[in-house]
């Protein structure tokens, strides 16, 4: 795998990519501050289909915006989900009077951030009293068969090739005028009747990362992995020598279609089912080889399983940067048609001008486009929506103005403590990044450090309120929404939201450790309603939960910090049950010596708090 890049520095790369993406379709607009692309021509008389995820999957969702597909898409940084704040801005920029459907990959960060945005959107609808909206619903894409039921556990199947496929189907349904309820049923039924598996000859290389093969997880020259995801996570099975193409594809199809494999027999196919076949290039397979793989797949489906595709799609729809791999997806279209009363093949055949599905053929102006004017158009549009009131993207700001409850006894000491917490996170970034490179995708440390630096900037600029406790944590939560994506960002933001909510119900008096411990306990309980993560699952909860429990029990910050550190150390001996570490292959000895990066971040942050308050 090549580690060479035209843009070897990742700084600003995602923004440039999004500006390039809108250049090929004159109907698209970009709101750069929150990485939102929307179709300026989407009709308010139709349900808005929206999707998003980390960058690195291009053309991805940005290429699927247009008539008959998505109304808007939101991008995070490379392989990191966009924040809830970004998604809320996307809702406001798209025409959503008839309701919204989110298409969400089954990755924890995507689920949490889009779920939080959906809740905020419902709250905004309630506040505005809009009775004509079809509401907000989510369709979770979970089509991977590589990770079976036993290994998947609480995580479930990953979202792979069915994401862009769902964008086409649900977008066509919206264009036909189907309601939110009807499209939600169609989407869920579609996922239930689909299976996908991926394979790759190597992992991709992320611009800006180390070029040492051991650092970025390069496979040996002759090896390949079956069960690859789209975030560079390891496959569930490594083959030391890549088999011939026909053998490799035969094994992939066996995982999808073998009804004797009870762990992975998610969907029964019968001879004559005539499924839809969808081949997705992960980014680094040449078209020469990709179409050869398609030909071999079709041949084996017919010869071995008596399955003859009714529709065939083959292209790079959702990539993993430059990973030299591909995924195979099969869909039982007749079952979807029968259950939903709308012909799935007709929906696939409906026209669209989304450039990653077909060429754009409408709307080109006679004069060159004015990019600056278009960017101002997005800013003006958002400002108008926010001025009317009830804007989802302004929910935190509106709530912050009305914050009540205990005050911070010593604002300067509060500022010092927060600064120390942030500095601890920044100082720990190299260690957390190194550990996350081993067990995850390498962005945990940099994400936390970026969040910490933004908080310090907020302290310097006065954007972090230091007088009222609830307002303090709301200020920090707003910063999290703006800069901290991924799973950890959602967890931090949800915990901070719970803290603020707890404080607002307390009497007006100086906050002591008693109030902080009680609010933290309530925030943890609230957090647990959004995530299945619990102690023992090798997540940041393994450090957060013992910290909160000990703080409430002893009212002693030193003991609580020690409990967090002990919880973090225990993660070295735990098998992952949530997060991307679940998808690690068996026998990863290095992982067994590595603490969970998220738990490490929590332990470092609370240690910084103790230091900032004069403890040791």
From TrEMBL:
It catalyses: dihydroxyacetone + ATP = dihydroxyacetone phosphate + ADP + H(+); D-glyceraldehyde + ATP = D-glyceraldehyde 3-phosphate + ADP + H(+). One of its GO terms (cellular component) is cytosol. Transmembrane segments: none annotated. Gene3D superfamilies: 1.25.40.340, Dihydroxyacetone kinase, domain 1, Dihydroxyacetone kinase, domain 2. GO terms for biological process: anaerobic glycerol catabolic process. Residues 412-611 form the DhaL domain. The active site is at residue 231. GO terms for molecular function: ATP binding; glycerone kinase activity; triokinase activity. The keyword Hydrolase does not apply. Pathway: Polyol metabolism; glycerol fermentation; glycerone phosphate from glycerol (oxidative route): step 2/2. Keywords: ATP-binding, Glycerol metabolism, Kinase, Nucleotide-binding, Transferase. Catalyzes both the phosphorylation of dihydroxyacetone and of glyceraldehyde. PANTHER family: DIHYDROXYACETONE KINASE 1 (PTHR28629:SF14), TRIOKINASE/FMN CYCLASE (PTHR28629). This is Putative DAK2-dihydroxyacetone kinase. The lineage of its organism: Eukaryota, Fungi, Dikarya, Basidiomycota, Ustilaginomycotina.
């Amino acid at each position: 795998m090549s580690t060479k890049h035209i843009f070897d520095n990742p700084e600003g790369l995602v923004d440039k990519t999004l500006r390039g993406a809108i250049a090929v379709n004159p109907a698209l607009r970009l709101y750069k501050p929150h990485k939102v692309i929307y179709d300026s021509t989407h009709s308010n008389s139709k349900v808005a289909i929206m999707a998003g995820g980390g960058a690195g999957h291009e053309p991805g969702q940005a290429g699927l915006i247009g008539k008959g597909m998505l109304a808007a898409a939101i991008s995070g940084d490379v392989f990191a989900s966009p924040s809830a704040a970004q998604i809320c801005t996307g809702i406001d920029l798209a025409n959503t009077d008839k309701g919204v459907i989110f298409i969400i990959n089954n990755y924890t960060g995507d689920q949490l951030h889009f779920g939080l945005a959906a809740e905020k959107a419902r709250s905004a609808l309630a506040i505005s009293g809009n009775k004509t909206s079809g509401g907000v619903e989510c369709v979770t894409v979970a089509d991977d068969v590589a990770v079976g039921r036993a290994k998947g556990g609480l995580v479930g199947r990953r979202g792979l090739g069915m994401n862009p496929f769902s964008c086409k189907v649900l977008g066509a349904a919206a264009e036909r005028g189907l309601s939110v309820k009807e499209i939600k049923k169609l989407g869920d039924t579609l996922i239930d009747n689909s299976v996908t598996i991926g394979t790759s000859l190597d992992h991709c290389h992320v611009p800006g990362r180390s070029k040492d093969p051991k650092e970025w997880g390069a496979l040996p020259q002759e090896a390949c992995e079956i069960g690859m995801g789209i975030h560079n996570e390891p496959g569930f099975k490594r083959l030391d020598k890549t088999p011939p193409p026909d053998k490799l594809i035969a094994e992939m199809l066996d995982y999808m279609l073998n009804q004797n494999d009870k762990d992975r027999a998610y969907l029964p196919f019968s001879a004559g089912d005539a499924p839809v076949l969808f081949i997705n290039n992960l980014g680094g397979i040449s078209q020469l080889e990709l179409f050869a793989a398609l030909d071999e797949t079709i041949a084996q489906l017919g010869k071995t399983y008596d399955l003859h595709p009714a529709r065939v799609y083959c292209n790079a729809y959702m990539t993993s940067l430059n990973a030299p791999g591909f995924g195979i997806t099969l869909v039982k279209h007749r079952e979807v048609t029968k259950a939903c009363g709308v012909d799935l093949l007709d929906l696939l055949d409906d026209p669209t001008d989304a450039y990653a599905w077909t060429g754009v053929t409408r709307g080109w102006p006679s004069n060159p486009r004015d990019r600056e004017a278009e960017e101002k158009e997005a800013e003006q549009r958002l400002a108008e929506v926010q001025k009317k009131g009830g804007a989802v993207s302004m929910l935190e700001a509106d709530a912050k103005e009305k914050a009540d409850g205990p005050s911070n006894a010593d604002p300067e000491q509060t500022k010092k403590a927060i600064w120390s917490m942030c500095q601890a996170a920044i100082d720990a970034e190299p260690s957390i990044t190194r550990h996350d490179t081993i067990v995850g995708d390498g962005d945990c440390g940099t994400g936390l450090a970026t969040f910490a630096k933004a908080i310090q900037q907020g302290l310097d600029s006065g954007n972090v309120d230091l007088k009222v406790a609830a307002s303090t944590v709301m200020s920090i939560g707003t910063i999290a929404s703006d800069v901290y994506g991924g799973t950890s960002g959602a967890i931090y933001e949800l915990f901070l939201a719970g803290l603020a909510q707890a404080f607002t119900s307390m009497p007006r008096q100086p906050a002591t450790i008693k109030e902080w411990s009680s609010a933290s306990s309530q925030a943890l309980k609230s957090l647990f309603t959004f995530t299945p993560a619990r102690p023992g699952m090798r997540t940041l909860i393994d450090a957060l939960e013992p910290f909160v429990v000990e703080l409430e029990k002893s009212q002693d910050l030193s003991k609580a910090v020690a409990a967090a550190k002990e919880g973090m150390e225990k993660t070295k001996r735990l098998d992952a049950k949530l997060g991307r570490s679940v998808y690690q292959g068996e026998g990863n000895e290095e992982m067994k010596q590595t603490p969970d990066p998220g738990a490490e971040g929590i332990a470092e942050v609370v240690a910084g708090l103790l230091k900032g308050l004069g403890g040791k």
